[in-house]
Structures are given as structure tokens and as C-alpha cells.
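Dear support,

I submitted the protein below through the web form. The confirmation email said the job was done, but the results page showed an empty box. After a refresh the structure appeared. I'm attaching both so you can tell me whether what I see now is the final result or a partial one.
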Amino acid sequence: MPTLVIKSVPKEIHQFLKESARAHRRSLTQEVITILEQLVTVRKKEVAAPVHKTLSAEQMKLLTMSGRRKLLPGYIEAAQAFAGGTDSSVMISEDRDQW
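What the results page shows now:
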């Protein structure tokens, strides 16, 4: 297994890691590895997440109720940001399972 040496860690970070390790009943090394594993998992999900796509004409028509409804500013941008995104129940389950 590879070894990683980190020098000149700020005191605040070192103290936080020591306290967190103590609270989780781990060694400092185990705590750092656990935190890094969690970070890598989150980053992998970010990379694997679908790229936000623009809404189709039909989706826009549905949002505006066939064009009869005036939308609030920023609503279309927010809807486009979540088009094709992950279902919220999946995200909630993933967050719960991390802790």
C-alpha cells in the first residue's frame, strides 16, 4: 500500500483531525484515510453526474402551461439546471447513508 507524508499541516487542521479521530475512536491515520475516501466518493459522483441539459420545446411548453403563464425570473434557469438531474429521493438516501 502506498505511503503519503504530509508536512507543515496547519495547527487548526491537525487539532480538528485529532479531535475527530478521538470522537470516532480511530487513529489519526485512519481518520485521514476515512475523510479522503469520503471526499473521493463525493468527487466521483460529481464527475459521474449528468451534465445539465437545456429543456426541450415541449418541456418549456409544459412549464409555461402552453405559454399562457408568465414565469418568475430565474425559474427557467433553475428548471434547466435540474433537467435530467438525479431524483431528490436518491440524493437524500445517499446523504443519509454517508453518515
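Response: this is the final, complete result; the empty box was a page-load delay. The chain has a mean pLDDT of 78.
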